[in-house]
User: Fold this.
Amino acid sequence: MFISALCCLLLCGCGGNGELSGGSISSPSPSPSQSPAPSQDDVSASEAPGPAAPQVLCVNAPEDIQDELCLAMAQLCQPRAMDISGLALEQPELDVTNLYYEILADRPELKYAYSIQVTVEGSLLNCSLSYMPYKTGEYPADFQGAEVRDLGQLISLADDNLGSGSVPLRITDPSLEPDEMNKALQQSGGGYFSCTLNQDATAIVFAPPLGMDAGDCLQALEEADKLADSLISQLISPDMGQEEKARALYSWLCSNVEYDQRYYSDRASMPYESQTALGALRDGTAICGGYSHALKLLFEKAGIPCFNVTGIYYGENHMWNIAQIDGRWLWFDATSDRGSDGQFGYLRFALEYLDEDKYQWDDSIVQALTGSGGSGE
Assistant:
């Protein structure tokens, strides 16, 4: 599933006017008649971290089950046993599991409760939740993993271990959210590796695209890296400031890389490289994913912090960049400025704001990565 999602993300159609990249459930408070949920001291490791409270909770609607599950998840404990005799559930185990998935869809920050086991004996429902150990602090005694305290370290760990299959990690900040970390990991891999957390967030897992192996991907990334080094040596000098470096690299990309129109006319014949920096730097042909990955690679080699941003532009999926120039996070969209030599300026170079009528994106992950607002006008 992750590989398919990655391919959809990277297959970014970016034509002249449109471009392609890739009911709230509250946590109830227990009533005075209900026994309190187990404290964090009762939480064990990732499997069933705590005994269920002895009191049986009578439920009369599916929402009551969701409320109890949601409360337990928020408190990192086990749900109470529930009397479901007042409910007409055709397949109780499946129905309750689906209620759990509804919670995760509505409140993705609770995905640290990564699985549920449901058993029904007569009219008694028991649910056992498994928690990611970074939330409970309960790693196995012999667990060995690289310590990760923030998203920057998470991305660096992924970058340093591409092609290894997986790398164990110990996340030390329990406030990090699973979706936030997985979105941050999309910054790694250069379009060649899907980088994701495993089920219980104790490892990063790497997967190449369909039809490629890890060796192919590493070779392509190495080639792009060498091409970027060559361009840096030609275009950048030590006396240049960050804005001057950014303009030189951005100008080269806009002037020398054409949009791969095969995305629209004959997608089956479009090479995978057009979605990556290699297509832009070696072949001079790319779609927006290729422009964005290339700019990120060039900027970072020039000492300019840079991230890819995925979202919507004029109604189509798109990928562009945000980069830090002289302490300010600014927007860049080389795909939209392609073909321009910059003689009369660029429309999407170093913008403080983006027009939200044209661009839409997940600002929460941009803020998490940059520590800035990152918002549009």
Notes: Residues 1-12, 15-46, 373-377 have pLDDT under 50 and may be disordered.
